[in-house]
Amino acid sequence: MSRIGAIKDLDIRPEDRTPLVEQLLGIISQLERKIEALEDEVSRLKGLPQKPRYGQPSTLEDPDGKPSTVDRRKKKKRKKRRRKRPGSAKRSKTAELIIHETIPLEIANLPEGSERLGYKNYYVQDLKIQAHNTCYRRARYRLPDGRLLVAPLPDRIQGHFGNTLRSYLLYQHFHNHVTQPLLHEELTELGVDISKGEINRLLTEGHEAFHAEKDELLPAARKVSEFLHTDDTGAKHRGKNGHTLHIGNQWFAAFFTTASKSRVNFLEVLQQPFEDYYIGAEALEYMAHFKLPAYLLERIGKGLGEGDCWVVQGRADWDSQLEYWGVTSEEHRRIVTEAGLYGSLLEHELYDAMTLISDDAKQFKVLGFLHGLCWVHAERHVKRLVPTNTKERRAHDKVRDEIWTYYQKLKAYCEHPTQREKKRLDREFDRIFLQTTEYAELNEVLRTLHGKKAHLLLVLDHPEIPLHNNLSENDIRQYVKKRKISAGTRSDLGRRCRDTFLSLKTTCRKLSVSFWKYLQDRINGFREIPPLPELIQQQAMATTSRG
Q1: End-to-end distance of the chain based on CA atoms, in angstroms?
Q2: Domain ranges (residues) in the chain
Q3: DSSP assignment of 67-97
Q4: What is the pLDDT of residues 118-167, one digit of tens each?
């Protein structure tokens, strides 16, 4: 038995196990765990063999949204039983293949009397990766009046670097995460004469049309969506710590990198493209909810009749308005600003009956939203506990198994919701999260989770919403990979381009649009691929009609 287990299993009579004794035993157990962790670190630094660590896979969903390990094993067994013969489901690999060149091959020195039976096709797929330089010889004329006239370039030419090269740079940098130095080395080896500065310019400048299309993703999606996922991650900009916010669902993903992860920042993103502040009855209720001092509430609401509101346009005018009201404290300015943004969301009716799914971070807790919590994140609070004796391990395993079983029942309910099952699941939630085990820390975690019952069980009233926030976590990995490879951004334009092209790339993937073809379509000006906001609404309508 480990030292931690020995501490918990001391022969202490039940009558002597007072709350103080239990608390002291818990503190000792925590210290013992820290000592073991430090001993492991010392062994690692000395190069000594490490203790084997045995862990369990998640009993809920994997981070990528796939079924749990247990489910996969069951499905694998079922597949073995009904496995078809090899090759029975193979598809034709050349049915949709575009042939660019056909080369007939003949046989020499055939014997006399041989009969031709046609051809047997053999397909070879390849790429042509090489520099392709074009010289446009522009005719020059001197007109009778003395003026010089030079033949214009084709409309598709936008500089000394062609559209395919520009598309390739964007694709490699934002889709394949190739860094600018490697791009320069690659193009130089392929025979392209280009500087590092020119590569940076092609990646960051002249993309206003892309930015405009990205800015329309969220406004288009909120018109047709029943729920949104959100999450954030760290970001570096000009050597300083910042944050990247993700908002998306099954049809789109949008990234917003800012210096703050506050609720004010979150509301400003939700508000786009509006930049106004509304102070009316709802905003005053918001301030009162967050306990803004009464004298400030009275001062701000003075002169407002029923149905009236203050409207302020732009951040500069808003700061002046706060000064006029005498709102000087940073905390008070935050509450009033949140209220003004909240009032704007209500005034423009941007998110009526919208559900927000998050990991329970405080900046996402906005009044007026239906807020669903992620069950995967909730279960982690139980999973991360470290039981220190047999009784605690038994209780810990039992509760996790109950949560796993309950989660599967919720999934089944979302497929076929009924009032009877809804009431039964509501009662079972109370039974699981209000039970008292022999593990004090586990009991505290269960009570905390029970306090979030309304958010965890939002699916009982809205079975259409997901039970977890895996979609947001999967999307935001695109940004995390880019951050790990290329580190932070150094200019505001570079930061905006990273947000824009990662948003467009991820959205293209969700809409089954080739990002490579999308880049070529937009840069060449073909416009054969509809705007992504339009495709989002088409997908939503198609899903609704199928439902």
Answers
A1: 57
A2: 375-460
A3: PPHHHHHHHHHHHHHTPPPTTTTPPPSSTTP
A4: 899 999 998 888 899 999 999 999 999 999 999 999 988 889 999 999 99
